[in-house]
Specification:
Keywords: Membrane, Transmembrane, Transmembrane helix. The protein is an alpha+beta fold. The protein has one domain (about 65-330). The protein has nine helices and four strands; from the N terminus they run H-H-H-H-H-H-H-H-E-E-E-E-H. Strands 1-2-3-4 form a four-stranded antiparallel β-sheet. The longest helix is centred in the N-terminal third of the chain and has 27 residues, at about 55-80.
Length: about 350
């Protein structure tokens, strides 16, 4: 018998001598050691991912939804309402435009009356800034032989004239035009143009007797500037294209039209003289053209602003030409040479 066979016989003999309980213990010990060795070789099991409580998941989802709705509303509001005219973009004139802030302070509007509900609601002017913030002057930069300081001073003068003529309660309601007189070049006052009346050289905006503002005046449009020169003077030419919206408190005989807003669309050319020591604080109005809407025609002939009356004696029974209507009258791009509804 070889050695291998002898070893097998010996193992069989040893196993045959073991009783069943002893064998079971030995097998159990071997299995225990085997499992222990397996655990040492195997990586630790991955931790079970924690789940966000249901109430927190729901709050997160609603937060995302609300943010999305608010973002859409912020983007869509200025453009999604039919008939509203967005605030005009500024042009790129020789003197570049600064949209940060007006270059001078505006006249006080303490006499203006506020109402609980915005009278501009539903009109294009509902999105416009008030006049003290909406007349944006170009940036004051050196142009031609004029320094930035000279240009800035002239732009301040032009800005002050525009707000005084269109919004100052002393002019608008009290009809005190002396302040405007002091702002016009004396040579222009000496021409044959009248100082009072509808064609006044001062170009004031005057409310008809008894009318008052229901809210601060709003404005939309652009102002540009360029340098020009003559044989004797250096001139800064300021051009405007502004639409002014006046919400008025109606009177007993006012015509009911669904709104109480008088619109004045005006283009003006103002000459200023930054280097002239005598004229540097004044303006020369070289050109002015305009149209009005939702206004009393008889008062217009007197140079006054008012809501149309039921028995307005100067309103034409049928408007002539292609008269702008609706949101057109609020748009700075609407041409001024339209027909009219006044005799």
């Amino acid at each position: 018998m070889n050695r291998a066979g002898a070893r097998v016989d010996e193992d069989d003999r040893i196993l045959s001598e073991l009783h069943d309980p002893e064998w079971a213990k030995r097998v159990a010990a071997i299995e225990k050691e085997f499992r222990k060795a397996e655990r040492k070789r195997s990586p630790a099991p991955l931790a079970r991912p924690t789940r966000t409580p249901r109430r927190f998941r729901a709050a997160y989802i609603w937060t995302v939804v609300v943010i999305g709705v608010l973002a859409y509303a912020a983007i869509a509001k200025p453009w999604g309402v039919q008939g509203r005219i967005p605030v005009a973009n500024q042009p790129d004139p020789i003197v570049t435009v600064d949209q940060a802030a007006p270059t001078t302070s505006s006249p006080t509007t303490a006499a203006q009356t506020a109402v609980d509900e915005d009278p501009f609601a539903g009109s294009p002017a509902a999105l416009w800034p008030t006049a003290d913030k909406g007349v944006i002057m170009p940036t004051a930069t050196a142009v031609g032989p004029l320094s930035a300081a000279q240009v800035r001073h002239s732009l301040d003068v032009a800005h002050r004239y525009l707000l005084t003529a269109r919004t100052d309660p002393r002019v608008l309601t009290a009809h005190q035009t002396g302040l405007l007189r002091s702002m016009i070049v004396p040579a222009e006052l000496a021409t044959s143009a009248p100082v009072t009346g509808p064609n006044s050289v001062l170009r004031p905006t005057l409310l008809a007797p008894g009318f008052k503002l229901a809210a601060p005046i709003r404005v939309n449009g652009t102002v540009a500037a360029k340098y020009a020169s003559s044989s004797t003077r250096r001139v800064l030419v300021v051009t405007t294209n502004l639409v002014w919206a006046y919400a008025l408190v109606p009177q007993a005989d006012s015509l009911t039209t669904g709104d109480d807003i008088v619109v004045l669309h005006e283009k003006m050319t103002l000459d200023l003289y930054p280097s002239d020591p005598t004229w540097k604080d004044k303006v020369w109005i070289t050109d002015a053209d305009w149209y009005t809407a939702n206004i009393d025609c008889a008062y217009v002939k007197q140079g006054l602003l008012a809501l149309p009356r039921i028995d307005d004696p100067s309103r034409a029974p049928r408007p002539s030409g292609v008269v702008p209507t609706g949101s057109q009258v609020f748009d700075p791009k609407t041409p001024l040479d339209m027909g009219g509804s006044c005799l």
